[in-house]
Amino acid sequence: MLNFTEIVDRVPSLDDALHTPEAETSKPNPATVEISLDEAKELLGRAVKERGEDYVYAPPLDPETGAKSCVYFHPADKAPSCMVGYVLAYKGMTYDHLAATDSTITEVQNLVEEGHLKVDNETLALLTVAQVEQDQGQTWGRALEEALATYEESAEAMETDGRDDPSEDYWF
Fold it and tell me: The whole model's pTM is what?
């Protein structure tokens, strides 16, 4: 099993350009994004490398309520916002795709239930732990480390509880 450093170091060097709305909206708009465990690790590592290990996610303000709201893509510029948003964007998902079904603010499990994301339990656990850690104010490097350290336990707990169908509603 690869650790955090090995995953981040495997990611090829990136230019300094972050995602732009033009780049994101020019990609195909897939009905369902499928992500394997190895791919999720690689893409999370890419996001960490792109934003920096010490980057702390700052949720944008909801224009309607004025409250901070965690989102996959920024509504203003449609660029990826959080770690999982970057992963989805790397796979071709866009703000417009999620906005069409009011899924821009949701948990990873909901993306599975709504048919936007197809993953196995381990991948779901990895992405969920990364998202939760990030949303609790951890740096992206720390969120990835925590996700890598705990996803197998979380996936095993899902299966042990008889919840091996990713369409079922559960929390770990």
Answer: 0.73
